């Protein structure tokens, strides 16, 4: 069982990358985890937002495998408190998919074809965050969920 965070574009801020690396290392004590990066599209000024979403969707589909449980990190998804997210994650992992793939879309969101592939959509907040910062926030939430599932004292209610 592996957790994957699939993102578009490299993390450009070294401080953000350091935080991601820290939580990735912490997560490795609980579950196999990878942050997989799809290269950003080039020459996007010549594309409409819809064309950009279609091209990003092609790149996303190439990263997916049969049997993946695909979860979109999307502003319209279900919001969950950390404890509820941990319970959900525990159930998903126990259900036995080889991989749970969480996807952060591009600047314009997801193409309809990616919504069709997804089993679920999760929102981290009603607020808008940069795509760079979401990587840290979500990686930390995965770590937090793992500590909650093990009854460790990281999370406080």
Mean pLDDT score, rounded? 96
Text of the CATH class? Alpha Beta
* Number of beta-strand segments: 5
* Biggest sheet, spatial arrangement of strands: 2-1-4-3-5
Assign the CATH topology.
Alpha/beta knot
* β-sheet strand percentage: 15-25%
Shape: globular
Global structural class: alpha/beta
Number of H- or I-type helical stretches? 5
In angstroms, what is the radius of gyration? Answer: 15 Å
> How helical, in percent, are the residues?
40-55%
Assembly annotation:
single chain
Q: How many structural domains in the coordinates?
A: 1
CATH architecture annotation name: 3-Layer(aba) Sandwich
Distance between the termini: 28 Å
Question: Largest sheet at a glance?
Answer: 5 strands, parallel
State the fourth-level CATH superfamily. Answer: SPOUT methyltransferase, trefoil knot domain
How would you spell out the order of helices and strands?
EHEHEHEHEH
Give an account of the 3D structure.
With 157 residues, the chain is of the alpha/beta class. It has a single domain (2-42, 49-149), classed as Alpha/beta knot, CATH 3.40.1280.10. The chain has helices at residues 14-27, 49-63, 82-94, 112-117, 131-149; strands at residues 2-8, 33-38, 69-79, 99-104, 120-123. Helix 1 links the parallel strand 1 (2-8) and strand 2. Helix 1 (14-27) runs parallel beside helix 5 (131-149) and helix 3 (82-94) packs across helix 5 (131-149). The longest helix is centred in the last third of the chain and has 19 residues, at 131-149. It is globular. The mean pLDDT is 96.
């Amino acid at each position: 069982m592996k957790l994957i965070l699939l993102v578009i574009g490299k993390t450009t801020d070294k401080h953000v990358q350091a935080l991601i690396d820290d939580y990735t290392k912490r997560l490795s004590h609980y579950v196999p985890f990878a942050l997989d990066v799809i290269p950003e599209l080039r020459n996007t000024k010549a594309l409409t937002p819809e064309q950009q979403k279609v091209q990003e969707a092609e790149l996303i589909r190439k990263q997916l495998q049969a049997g993946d449980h695909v979860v979109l990190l999307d502003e319209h998804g279900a919001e969950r408190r950390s404890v509820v997210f941990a319970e959900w994650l525990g159930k998903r992992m126990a259900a036995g998919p080889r991989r749970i793939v969480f996807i952060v879309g591009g600047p314009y969101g997801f193409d309809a074809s990616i919504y069709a592939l997804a089993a679920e959509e999760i929102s981290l907040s009603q607020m808008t965050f940069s795509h760079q910062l979401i990587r840290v926030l979500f990686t930390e939430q995965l770590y937090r969920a793992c500590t909650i599932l093990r009854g460790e004292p990281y999370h406080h209610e």
